[in-house]
Amino acid sequence: MTDFTLWDILRNLLLAARWTVALSLIAFVGGGVVGLLVLFMRTSRFRALRVATTLYIELFQGTPLLMQLFLAFFGLGLAGIEVSPWTAASVALTLFASAYLAEIWRGCVEAIPRGQWEASGSLALNYIEQMRYVILPQAVRIAIPPTVGFSIQVVKGTALASIIGFVEVTKAGTMLNNATFQPFLVFSLSALIYFSLCYPLSLYSRRLERSLHVAR
Amino acid sequence: MSLVKIEKVEKYFGTNHVLKGVDLEIDAGEVVSIIGRSGSGKSTLLRCVNALETYEAGTIVVDGMEVNPQKTDLRKLRQKVGMVFQSFNLFPHLSAARNIMLAPMIVKGTPEKDAAALAMKVLEKVGLAEKAKSYPDQLSGGQQQRVAIARSLAMSPAVLLCDEITSALDPELVGEVLKVLEQLAADGMTLILVTHEMRFAREVGDRIVFMHQGKVWEQGPAKEVFYAPKTPELRQFLGAVTQEETHHTRRVPESESRALSGVEISHE
Amino acid sequence: MRYQFQFDAIWPYADLLARGVWLTIQLTSIAAVLGIALGVLCAMGRTSRFAWLRAAVGVYIELIRNTPFIVQLFFVFFGLPSAGIKLTANEAAVLAMVINMGAYSTEIIRAGIEAIHRGQIEAGLSLALTRLQIFRYVIIKPALEKIYPALTSQFIIVMLGSAVVSQISAEELTFAAQFIQSRNFRSFEVYFITTFLYLLLAIGFRQVFKLVGWWAFARR
């Protein structure tokens, strides 16, 4: 058994952290794009779309992320797609993020007072124009704090990708623990890395929330 | 030919029969004040005219266009009918000028330069040209309401609906808004107002419509209806209102207080 | 490419799944009760007069909320033995879940207490109630009512998160699923059914909580 120095451990974890960040970005951006789509379907005039997206959101919010990862990993392979842990994790986390973001944003749109809809409607604007010029500009402002807050969940979610073999911080930690038998050290450092990614986001989200209330 | 024709309109809110058959005709250039107790259906009726509310029976025709939320081209209708709200509903993320320019630009396709000029014109009309670049949260209630009026005017509607537009204002700010309405009336704008401002209704309005229990209960020329109400319900309503007005801390000029109580007040 | 779904390959293992479900429910319930209790204590600490106590609780909360549950779990399960504390998988799972639930509950509970309008407290004071009486008669019930939705949501989140404890071999639902698929190699079918079971659990608990909430907070 080779001797691992503190620096060895830290270095390996930090290298693995690159993948944590990469996966988080993919999931967050991808989830945002898909989430917007889901949002528009969720608030559309067509009942079929509304029902379908409600079920979609219920599904992702009512089942464990781990299960979603497993299903992506084992399920996508059945459809003939080459499934690496990367692909499965990206797909699962993207869809996961899209469902939560769509719900968060829907809440923000619904928070805009009805009077804004009525006033813009009375000025002969149609639905798309109302959303584009009056509602969404206001909704985006109040959506930023919870969206930043959710990004923390995405980063933490990447840790589960380790279970389907994706090598990021947690997987590196497990492997290092097996090699060094220093769980306290290894997992403390792992936690520290996640903390340094998530805590700034927490602070930022809270600062945004505060400035939002001051401006009101 | 009346500009707005409302015939046998009925509306339910769930099981609540709010409008029980309303008949009303309004000619171009008329200033009509709708008064009545809360729950009499005044605001609901107004909101049916620009299709913010649907109605179950009857017809509403505005300038030859039938108001039917399923069929009517709402875009066209709402260019003919403007509305000003009790809570102003200005767009908080846009300046006063931009609030006004938005609809002409995207509904009518007005080029930005022309829209900006139009905005300045209507802002001048309501006396707020210097506040063009201000945002709603920098304006007083009265100023916000005047911008809201300007915003509706910029679309050159045939008729302007005013839903209790001074009810949410501090008493000292009500006057500036009423002055604007007076000017609009003098310029020949067709106004339908739901209001509690009795003096305005009496002095500036052409006709008063008293609504009671979801119907037009009594209507007539403003001064007539006020001084000689025919139905007991209207008499009771006016009695309650004038009592409230004379107990109001607002300073009432002597000539007016005399007219309000219909009695010569001997001056001490 | 044709794949034959063989869902009936799961049937022989139904009782394993059932036992997994039961353990999931047990783990989550115990963790919830203890976690909320911890949350109440920490909420009091968070609003205490002593700055050091407020800071300590604050550090705890931030650490837990900004690190993944799986790392916390591994820390407890793999780390504690080297400090001499040997825990079974279930014990470690519950401990990690309690610590996790405690951090999130603290914020929820604190928000609920602070949401009680100051006027209520002042009314209580002017009626000569003691602080403790005010807490008991004026604050607790409305605060509980306010935080009930958030707290029950957190329960379901923790329950769904409990899938992770399968990784330290706690024999709850996900572990049962992994075991079954290692036997019949029907990974997709097994995980599909398991996901469905979790969904049923989530929906089921939500309904139960809703009913309990109606009953408990009914205006009588």
Written overview of the protein:
Chain A has a domain of 148 residues: MetI-like fold (Orthogonal Bundle). The model of chain A has no long low-confidence stretch (mean pLDDT 90). Chain A has 216 residues and is mainly α. Chain B has 268 residues and is α/β, with parallel strands linked by helices. Chain B has a single domain, classed as 3-Layer(aba) Sandwich (Rossmann fold). In chain B, α6 links the parallel β7 and β8. In chain B, α3 runs parallel beside α5. Chain B starts with a strand and ends in a 7-residue tail after the last helix. In chain B, 44% of the residues are buried. The C terminus of chain B is likely disordered. In chain C, α1 packs across α4, α6 runs antiparallel to α8 and α7 packs antiparallel against α8. Chain C is flat and about 75 Å long. Chain C has 8 helices and no strands. The model of chain C has no long low-confidence stretch (mean pLDDT 87). The N and C termini of chain C lie far apart (63 Å). Chain C is mostly helical and 220 residues long. Chains in contact: A-B, A-C. The interface between A and B is medium-sized, with 18 and 26 residues.
Global structural class of chain B: alpha/beta
The count of helical stretches of chain C stands at 8
Roughly what is the average pLDDT of chain B, rounded to an integer? 87
Beta-strand segment tally of chain C: 0
SS content category of chain C: mainly alpha
Mean pLDDT of chain C: 87
| Overall geometry of chain B | globular
How widely separated are the two ends of chain C?
63 Å
Could you list the spans of chain B in which at least 5 consecutive residues all have pLDDT below 50? 254-268
Percent strand of chain C equals under 5%
- List the total number of helices of chain B: 10
CATH class of chain B: Alpha Beta
Number of strands of chain B: 10
Q: What is the CATH domain class of chain C?
A: Mainly Alpha
CATH topology annotation of chain B: Rossmann fold
Q: What oligomeric state do these chains adopt?
A: heterotrimer
